[in-house]
Design a protein that fits this description.
The protein has 173 residues and is mainly beta. The protein has three helices and nine strands. Helix content is 13%, strand content 34%. Strands 1, 2, 3, 4, 5, 6, 7, 8 and 9 form a nine-stranded mixed sheet that branches.
Length: 173
């Protein structure tokens, strides 16, 4: 599956205070070039979600180079999880977090029924460009692979654009 994106780096100042540096991709409509929000993405069968528990429980794993925007992630069901029978692990070699509970409740039965889903790192969060990663936003899609594609001539970091799990032998499929 090809998903059109635009690369962006910016600071964000949440209403509850603080500062977050975001770097990575924003979904865009291939025809208009306009940004696509989470609700519009869901209407297209795509899910944009933060990786739950990433910064709190998997801070060390978040520092892996394999987690740059555009990198493939692996989704693995964990039906024996004592806290949530719908739990879905998010891995990049090692566990980096979980699919958020509300989304996992919807997605788990589909995975259990044999549907194939892929995930990629859409954006990373840090306090500043010099600080360690403290969060990830991922894109989930009902497809064997996801390719992030930028419009021709778009600004790109060069490292994450257009990659899929099949293009990266060091990534889980």
């Amino acid at each position: 599956m090809i998903v059109h994106v635009e690369y962006d780096e910016r600071y964000w100042y949440p209403e509850d205070g603080g500062q977050v540096w975001l770097v990575g991709y924003q979904l865009v409509d291939s025809e208009t070039g306009k940004y696509i929000g989470r609700d519009a993405a869901a209407a297209r069968g795509l899910w944009v979600a933060g990786v739950a528990g990433a910064g709190l429980h998997h801070a060390e794993a978040l520092q892996a180079a394999a987690l740059e925007p555009g990198s493939a992630l692996e989704l693995r069901r964990d039906p024996d999880n004592e806290h949530d029978p719908n739990a879905i692990q998010v891995l990049a070699g090692e566990q980096v977090g979980w699919v958020p509970r509300e989304l996992a409740e919807e997605l788990a039965p589909r995975l259990d029924a044999g549907e194939v889903w892929s995930a990629v790192v859409l954006r990373e969060q840090r306090r500043s460009p010099r600080d360690p990663r403290d969060g990830l936003t991922m894109l989930l899609a009902p497809s064997e692979t996801v390719e992030l594609r930028e419009p021709r001539g778009a600004r790109s970091p060069g490292s994450g654009s257009g990659r899929t799990s099949r293009d990266r032998p060091d990534q889980p499929r």
